[in-house]
Specification:
This protein has one domain. By secondary structure, the chain is of the alpha+beta class. 28% of the residues are buried. The two termini are 24 Å apart. It has helices spanning 2-17, 57-73, and strands at 22-31, 41-45, 50-52, 77-81, 98-106. It is globular.
Length: 107
């Protein structure tokens, strides 16, 4: 995982040097089955480019959307995604797990 984190953080630095707004999403907790472990990162630039992964699928899209809001307003967010019987195939983890993701603007 260290190489992936290095790549994500290197991209964050490149975006910052280019004057882009950047947010970093970090998996801070998981329960049950989850595609990415705690410490996984997804970086998002203000032009909607992203690198890394915090889960995949619908969750990743929702995290990118929240990250763009974090870039715009500067307020960090704690997000939680999981699965319920009612939402098993919508935004959630159909594999039965939960994931908590912290999203912050990188200054």
């Amino acid at each position: 995982m260290a190489e992936v984190v290095t790549d994500v953080l290197a991209q964050v630095r490149q975006w910052q040097e280019a004057g882009r707004g950047v947010a970093l999403a970090t998996v801070v907790g998981t329960w049950g089955s989850s595609p990415c472990q705690a410490g996984s990162h997804l970086a998002v630039s203000d032009d909607s480019a992203f690198v890394g992964s915090v889960s995949g699928g619908c969750i990743e899209g929702a995290v990118v959307t929240e990250a763009l809001q974090v870039i715009a307003d500067g307020r960090p967010r704690q997000l939680e995604f999981g699965v319920t019987d009612e939402m098993a195939w919508s935004i959630g983890l159909a594999c039965g797990g939960k994931v908590q993701i912290y999203v912050e603007r990188v200054e």
